[in-house]
Amino acid sequence: MKQQDCLRRFIFEEHGVRGEWVRLEKSWQQAKQHQHLVSDAVDAQMGQALAAVVLLSATIKFKGAMIMQIQGGGDLKALVAQSSNERQIRGLVRSEASVAGANLQEMIGEGGRLVLTVESENAEPYQGIVGVEAETLADVLRTYFTQSEQLDTRLWLFANKTYAAGLFIQELPSSNQDKADWERIEILANTVTADELLSLDCEDLLHRLFHQEKVRIYDPEPVEFKCNCSRQKIGGTLAALGRSELQAILQERDDIEVDCQFCGAQYHFDKVDVENLLTNPAAETDTNSPTRH
C-alpha cells in the first residue's frame, strides 16, 4: 500500500542536513472540495501550498497552527494554507473567474507577498513576510529561509488532480559541515521529478536520490484534513462587529448566516443568539442554533 497522507522526516547521519517528505491524497481531495478552483493551474498552486505548510510546520516545535497566506493584486487574490502541530490541514483560494499567468508570480501579480504566521498556545504569535519575487512557491520559500533563518534550505513541490507532494532539505542549525556536502546533497535532490515525487514512496525516492548516503528515516506522521472552525469562534467574530452593525443586518433578515470559507459549514444566529452574543459571549456554545455541513 502506498504511503499517502503522511509526513516522513529523515536525516543524513554523516552530514548536518535534515529532510522531510510529504504526500497528500485524501486530505488534499477533502481540502479542495470546498474551494472554487477555476483551473488546473490554480488547483496545483493550492496543492503545493498545503504540502509546503505541512513541511514547514514540522521544522519547529509548537502547539497551535501555522498559517501561510499569499496575496497580491493579480487574478489569484489569496491563497491560504494552514497546518496544526498535529498535521491537521485546511486551505482556501480566492480568485477571479479566470486566472491568467503561467506561474505563481504571474497569478499573484504586483505587490505579491507571502506571510507566514505561527500561532502558538504557549508563545506570542510569530510572523515572517517575504515578497513573491520568484516563479514558484518553492523558490519564494527558499528566499524566505535565506532572509529569516540564514539556513540553506530547498523545497520541491508538485501537485496534480490526485496528489500533492513535497520534499524539503535544510542544513542543521550550528552545523559546522563542509559546504561541499550540502551542495552535493542539494544537487542530488534537484534531480527529483514531479512524477517521482508524486508516485514514489519515501524510501524508494530517497534511495533513488541518495543511495550513496547514510539516511535515517523516521516513522510516518499522519496528515488529515480537519477544519477547526466552531460556533463559538464564529460568534466571537460576529460580536466584534458591534451591536449597531449586527442589528442593522437583522433588520433586513431573520437571522445571520455565516459560511466557513475552509470547510463550507454554515452557522446561523437569530435575534436571540445575537443578543446572547453581545451580552454574554461566553455562554454561546455549539448546542444553540443549527449548524449545517
Automatic annotation (TrEMBL):
InterPro entries: Heat_shock_Hsp33 (IPR000397), Heat_shock_Hsp33_C (IPR016154), Heat_shock_Hsp33_N (IPR016153), Hsp33_helix_hairpin_bin_dom_sf (IPR023212). Keywords: Chaperone, Cytoplasm, Disulfide bond, Redox-active center, Zinc. It comes from the Bacteria. Pfam families: HSP33 (PF01430). This is Hsp33 family molecular chaperone HslO. The gene is hslO.
